[in-house]
Amino acid sequence: MPVLLQFAIGLIFGFGLLLSGMSNPVKVLGFLDLGGIAAGTWDPSLAFVMAGAVAITFVGFNFVLKRSQPLFAEKFHVPTIAEIDRRIILGPAIFGVGWGLAGFCPGPALTALGFGSKSAVLFVAAMLAGMVLAHWIVGRASLSGIVTPADRLEA
Question: How far are the Cα atoms of 2, 13, 52, 115 from residue 111, in angstroms, in the given order?
Answer without folding.
Answer: 22, 9, 20, 8
